[in-house]
Amino acid sequence: PLGLSPNESLRRYARPGEPREAFEARCEAAAEDGADAEAEKLRDRYERKVDAAKKRLASAERRVRELDVDVGQRKQQELIAGAGQVLSVFLGGRRRVSGLSGMASRRSQTRRTQERLQSALEKAEEVQDTLAELEEELTEELDEIWGRWKATAGEIGTVEIPLERSDVQLEELVLFWAPPA
User: Fold this and answer.
1) Side-chain half-sphere of 40: how many Cα atoms within 13 Å?
2) Quick check: helix, strand or coil at residue 25?
């Protein structure tokens, strides 16, 4: 009998005389091709999600930079203007405390800007978390795809093909005789 090794799932069959290792390598290559084709379908879906998240992240980071600069400028202005007002009130340049209201207003604006900066930082962090979750989700899906295809590549069986009398044909009959020497 003649033994062949098929992989029905991949529709691959060992060639007569092909070593099992070579057939296994062909099956694994076919499985990789199948996994790549399946992963290609995921690429479009994830590409859109990642692009949208990257745009949101860039926008959030830009907003963080703007607010960071704004907070720095406001603190500097508050310090310069505030120091002058406190000194002038304290040293008698002005006798009324009502002049301090401008300083309080600037401090309030600085606090609000700091809160907006904190919100922008949190938004940027959320988008970074979203990107990390997308990457983790994609990795899990790709691992699952490869696991299925690798298992499919390992589904190699053995089929015995018996030889029958009708499988043998006599093409030409030749008789050779050599005299003994």
Assistant:
1) 6
2) helix
d(CA 166, CA 171): 13
39-59: per-residue pLDDT in tens? Answer: 998 888 888 888 999 999 999
Q: What is the overall mean pLDDT for the chain?
A: 83
Predicted local confidence at residue 152, as pLDDT: 92
- Taking the CA of residue 65 as centre, how many other CA atoms within 13 Å lie in the half-sphere pointing to its CB? 6
Say if pTM beats, i.e. exceeds, 0.70. no
Alpha carbons within 13 angstroms on the beta-carbon side of residue 91 total 7
What pLDDT is attached to residue 80?
A: 65
Q: Within a 10 A sphere around the Cβ of 71, how many other Cβ atoms?
A: 20
Q: Which residue has the tokens 């830009």?
A: 62
Q: Is residue 160 within a helix (H) or strand (E), and if so which, with residue range?
A: strand 159-161
* 7 phi/psi in degrees, rounded to 5: -125, 95
SS3 55: helix
* β-strand pairing of 12-13 with 6-7: antiparallel
- State which amino acid sits at residue 37: A
Identify residue 11 by its one-letter amino acid code. R
